[in-house]
Amino acid sequence: RVARRGPWVFRNEADNMPELAASDATAALVNVASSDGRELGSAACTLRKGVNILARMLTDNIFTPIDRDFFVQRLRRAAEHRALFLPGSRHHRLLNAEGDNVPGVLCDQYGGDLCLQFTSAAMEALFQDVIVEALQEVLAPASVVVRTDEGHDRALELAPLAPPRLLAGDYSGPTALPEEHGLSFGVDLLGEGWSSGRFFEDRPLRAVLARRLQE
User: Fold this and answer.
1) pTM for the whole structure
2) Could you please report the per-residue DSSP string of the chain?
């Protein structure tokens, strides 16, 4: 699967599961090789028992350092892509996990505030701090909030839950969103019980609401 550019390694595809299961760690950065010994790249590996997606590919070159500069480059590429297709926007999904080659990591931009979410327990355990540093370098945000709310992805990863918390900067909230169809909205990034991306996903519904209010 990975040899065909697939982004994930499933637990039943790994030949060295006993070795991985013997580790006391919950996550590890690993090299991935095919059954014939061909190196396929590096991946963030979840070592929690019962998680179906064992590893998420980060690069196809095992000699690529997975460090702050690695994430800075991926973030800059994602930001340039948004600038091309969403010119002038400062409220959108900045980072869309595997779609931006940063697997298991979502980041929504609300003006100067960023909301980070992890759908991979391994990426969270291994790289949360360095990803926050990369976000600060690329975007210089006023704040970075991380949300680890209960959800389908975190349940599949057996990832721990916690209230939303501030990782960097200062956040006074709520964050004002741009006016849409004559309506104004605000969002508290530290509020509990919602998914950050819903505010962007629900734009079509707000457009319907605006038309109904005008009838």
Assistant:
1) 0.89
2) -GGGT-SEEEGGG-TTHHHHHT-S-SEEEEEEE-TTS-EEEEEEEE-STT-SEEEEEEES-TTS--SHHHHHHHHHHHHHHHHHHSTT--EEEEEEGGGGT-TTEEEEEETTEEEEEES-HHHHHHHHHHHHHHHHHHH--SEEEEEE-S-HHHHHTT---EEEEEEEE----PEEPPPBTTB--EE-TT-SS--TTHHHHTHHHHHHHHHHHH-
